[in-house]
Amino acid sequence: MTHHDLVVVGAGSGNAVVDDRFAHLDVAIVAQGPFGGTCLNAGCIPSKMLAATADIANTVQDSGRHNVPAQLEKIDWPGVQRRVFGRLDAQARDAEQGRRETPWMTVYRGHAHFTGDRELQITTDAGSEHITADRIVVAAGSRPTAPPAITDSGLPYETSDTVMRLDKVPRRLIVVGGGYIAAELAHVFHTAGAEITIVEQGERLLTPQDESVSRAFTDSARARWDLRLGREVTGVHGTPGDLTVTLDDGTRLGADTLLVAVGRRSNADTLHIDKAGIASDEQGLITVDEQLRTSAPGVWALGDVTDGGPALKHVANRQAEVIAHNLLHPDRPQEMSYRVVPAAVFADPQIGQVGLTEQEARERGIDFVVGRRDYQDIAYGWALENTQGFCKILVERDTGTIIGAHVLGPQAATLIQPLVLAMTWQLPAREVAERPLWPHPALTEAVENALREAIKDCVQGGAD
Ligand SMILES: Cc1cc2nc3c(=O)[nH]c(=O)nc-3n(C[C@H](O)[C@H](O)[C@H](O)COP(=O)(O)OP(=O)(O)OC[C@H]3O[C@@H](n4cnc5c(N)ncnc54)[C@H](O)[C@@H]3O)c2cc1C
Ligand SMILES: NC(=O)c1ccc[n+]([C@@H]2O[C@H](COP(=O)([O-])OP(=O)(O)OC[C@H]3O[C@@H](n4cnc5c(N)ncnc54)[C@H](O)[C@@H]3O)[C@@H](O)[C@H]2O)c1
What we know:
There is one protein chain. By secondary structure, this protein is α/β, with parallel strands linked by helices. It folds into 3 domains: about 1-145 and about 265-330, FAD/NAD(P)-binding domain, CATH 3.50.50.60; about 150-260, FAD/NAD(P)-binding domain (3-Layer(bba) Sandwich), CATH 3.50.50; about 350-455, Enolase-like, domain 1 (2-Layer Sandwich), CATH 3.30.390.30. Helix content is about 30%, strand content about 25%. It has helices at about 35-40, 45-60, 75-100, 150, 180-190, 210-220, 315-330, 360-365, 380-385, 410-415, 415-425, 430-435, 445-455, and strands at about 1-10, 25-30, 105-110, 110-115, 120-125, 125-140, 140-145, 170-175, 195-200, 225-230, 235-240, 240-245, 250-255, 255-260, 265, 300, 345, 350-355, 370-375, 390-395, 400-410. The strands form 5 sheets. Strands 1, 2, 3, 4, 5, 6 and 16 form a 7-stranded mixed β-sheet that branches. A hairpin with a 4-residue loop joins strand 12 (about 240-245) and strand 13 (about 250-255). GO terms for molecular function: mycothione reductase [NAD(P)H] activity. It holds the Pfam family Pyr_redox_2.
């Protein structure tokens, strides 16, 4: 049995825990999948590289509105695949190679599970190995789920793990689920030439978003895609490549490809965490405290496998930093904060969001005002000929505190950042609107003007 000072299980965000500050230790990393994990290989990065390509294709298709006659010939899908995955696969290989060449690190390739306190069995192609460690970081991520009506059919279906690497664009793609992945990948495949149908059990797409954002997004999607809202799949029949999907209202839909995007579940259930005294919640997420310690002494956890914050890469990255600090400085530990967590949907239109939605603020009984500015009411919105974008900011009436912000439209993921900063430092809305100069006529004027709109109705907008 080999002993290490520190073992990290999972080479996604877990790989970011360890750097040269740990060179005095004997460190091992166990990797079942490619280095870089979901984000690099099948998540954030390929989906955004594909979405950026789709945005460019849309710009060409839409160029007539700017008096630039142009025609989109086609998206060269095999070329896009080579560019995107050629780059990302090389990154994953280089990351693993870098670890293998690090003298104080050991790379185990295989699946780890606990056999006791800080004791792991690693199953590899060559057999199995037992290791122990003084300290362990669990960063085993999550995996896509699929409804039984689909899995029981025995017919093939894609998930985000596989669909982006298809060698051909599907002709008719049915997406089950109307959340993040559906919004982003329907944008990609629609622009690449697929007919899109979305089957979503809720009444709108992206329902956790602010109602006005979810509504605007759904309306925009309805113009391009066939939306089956309030519906579930009850069965799949046919043969691979020629599928018939039945819905709970009896509708039958034809497709060559089915993409299931109904959420993900923690991989904690594959780790035998009970053998190591690691507690999990009712959804199977490993329970962590503010310092990202599990219930087992000497075991930390981060990312999608845990109950610590939303399953987003910037959350996991920050958790990796906090754990690294706490491993190196146990005498002065840091705590993870989830007070201000932004998120973005890289679809068409793009969405940026932070803090409370209007419906959440109402449910909490907060007395708040809403400031809104549409892109079509600012100069750069005219320049873009944009008619649907807006920035909406929620401000507590009495204190002028910004409690939530929502942007829909071009560059929304970037435009949200000044509001993330303002909320992080708890700057009053009036100060954020009036103290800095906002460059004219940039898109950021949508943010500035939404803030000015909100503070008109505040009792106390902040500093005068
Ligand atoms: C399509 C898609 C798009 C996304 N886009 C965004 C985005 O734009 N922005 C954003 O913030 N987030 C995005 N996310 C979410 C983001 O990818 C995840 O939150 C993040 O990657 C989680 O990191 P992690 O380290 O917890 O898990 P992972 O990156 O999944 O890493 C876990 C690693 O552990 C390995 N592993 C699992 N079990 C074991 C085991 N028993 N033994 C050894 N190794 C094991 C896995 O092979 C994997 O490499 C997206 C996700 C998807 C699916
Ligand atoms: N830009 C980003 O940050 C980004 C992008 C993609 C994925 N992600 C991460 O990956 C996670 C998974 O994404 P996702 O899109 O799979 O999940 P999601 O939770 O965003 O959306 C799932 C959707 O599927 C619907 N649904 C569930 N069961 C269904 C059923 N049986 N039939 C029809 N609809 C059903 C839900 O109502 C929901 O709208 C996200 O929650 C997020 O953490 C983030």
